[in-house]
Design a protein that fits this description.
This protein has 17 helices and 13 strands. The chain is of the alpha/beta class. The protein is elongated and about 75 Å long. The relative contact order is 0.12.
């Protein structure tokens, strides 16, 4: 029988329709693929069985979460090469068989009709394996009902505040930071000595407050308030009265504690409340930072209309939201299988153009759109560094499987932003007065200078 790595390399190449992008090592010590760079290590035949039943990123992720495969060398380089190969494969699928059909044909060709060889390779009958832990189960009912959204949010956020403190750092901000000290070049990012993650998150919160034009005595609604960092910054630095809403019980508990410890209880109220149930407008401003990804395309009109109705005329909305690149209209806005099953159940990403159109359809005037794509790549790399630095503690807090989920999801997301497969944008919009007045300055911000 040929060496295991060589056999697997041949049918993986058949599935991708291109050469193996990284080196492969299997449980018998055999290797195949390009030398140099990271190595994908399959520790057990169980990893192959997962790929046979789910020949895409979900199959790979399940084997990763179960500890059946790992990567030696730089994880980001591995994910970048894999992403490039999968992207090229996806681009060619219009007139090609499905990945499963191609994989099956490749296996059959390699084994030349020898079932005994296939059984030896897989370590037994190629039956499906139980999914590793932390994967969401079957979801009932329509997506984005209030009950189902509570369940989805709980799966992601109610995993322990100590774990989030470890990953996010003391800022407790779970969204793209802002790194204005970096210079953006046409050829990439020039990276001088960076500010701390905490400083970059402070700068992001302050950027939001300045775009909203906050002044003492105003009312701010922070939708999806997380652990209260935006609410606390707006109250402490700008003297506004803030209502923060979240549907995560654990987030709310810690947010209230942090507000009390900061002595901001007279300015900040944290509620466990769905944004659809907020009725105590009008507000002078609304911030929605990293929350709209949970809303879903079908419910986005409701979201936009609700926020518009909660603002006074002249009130501003800052909508900070991850975006995906436009695809064919008929394709789903759902996240990929791994992230939907393990990270953000029912999450959906839309192109920024769709977001702007739906906000305007709800009555907003969009005044400014700022892309922060590279900023999120830097943020995610900082979070991964935090997780890897305190890996043993992370495993103690949430278990090895969930810690692996987070390392893979954050590293893969960083690569997604770096490759321009994902974007993130701050959309500043205003509810204009009946007369058409916006109360906005003629120039919203200073243009970015891109150096060659």
């Amino acid at each position: 029988m040929p060496e295991t790595a060589g056999v697997l390399a041949r049918y993986i190449e058949g599935m991708l329709g291109s050469p193996l992008p990284v080196r492969l090592r299997t449980w018998d010590g055999s290797e195949s693929g390009p030398a140099g760079g990271p190595v994908l290590v399959l520790r057990t035949p169980r990893a192959v069985r997962r790929l046979l039943w789910q020949p895409d990123e979900l199959g790979l992720a399940r084997a990763w979460v179960a500890g059946e495969l790992t990567v030696e060398g730089d994880l980001y380089t591995f994910l970048d090469r894999l992403s490039g190969a999968l992207w090229e494969s996806e681009e060619q699928q219009d007139d090609r068989p499905s990945p499963l059909t191609r994989l099956t044909a490749a296996v059959q060709g390699v084994m030349a009709g020898n079932p005994a060889a296939l059984l030896r390779l897989l370590g037994g009958l190629p039956l499906p394996l139980p999914n590793p832990p932390e994967e969401t189960g079957r979801r009932r009912g329509r997506a984005h009902t209030k009950g189902r959204d509570r369940t989805a949010v709980s799966h992601h956020y109610d995993v322990g505040n100590d774990f989030y403190r470890l990953v996010l750092g003391p800022s407790f901000v779970y969204s793209c930071a802002y790194w204005p000290q970096y210079t953006l070049h046409a050829r990439g990012l020039d990276r001088p000595t960076p500010p701390t993650l905490e400083q970059a998150q402070h700068d992001k919160l302050d950027l939001v407050c300045r775009k909203l034009g906050l002044r003492p005595g105003q009312r701010l609604l922070d939708v999806g308030c997380g652990w209260g960092s935006m609410a606390m910054h707006a109250a402490a630095a700008y003297g506004v009265r803030v209502t923060g809403v979240t549907i995560s019980v654990e987030q709310a508990e810690l947010a209230r504690k942090r507000v009390a410890e900061a002595g901001l209880g007279d300015l900040v109220e944290i509620r466990v409340q769905d944004y659809r149930d907020v009725t105590d407008g009008p507000y002078d401003a609304i911030s929605s930072i990293g929350m709209a990804e949970h809303v879903g395309a079908e419910a986005y009109r409701t979201y936009a209309a609700r926020l518009h109705g909660l603002l006074r005329p002249g009130g501003r909305l800052l909508n900070h939201q991850i975006a995906r690149r436009p695809r064919r209209v008929e394709e789903s806005y759902r996240l990929n299988g791994f992230i939907d099953r393990y990270v953000f159940p029912d999450g959906e990403l839309s192109p920024v153009g769709s977001t702007v159109s739906l906000l305007e359809e709800a009555g907003f005037e969009v005044r400014d759109v700022e892309a922060l794509r590279e900023h999120y790549a830097l943020t995610l790399r900082a979070w991964v560094t935090n997780l890897e630095r305190d890996w043993a503690e992370a495993v103690r807090l949430v278990g090895a499987g969930r810690a692996r989920v987070w390392r893979l999801y954050m590293a893969a997301s960083a690569v997604g932003f770096e490759r321009n497969n994902l974007g993130v944008n701050q959309v500043l919009a205003v509810r204009t007065a009946p007369s058409g007045g916006s109360g906005m300055p003629l120039v919203a911000r200073v243009p970015v200078t891109v150096e060659g």
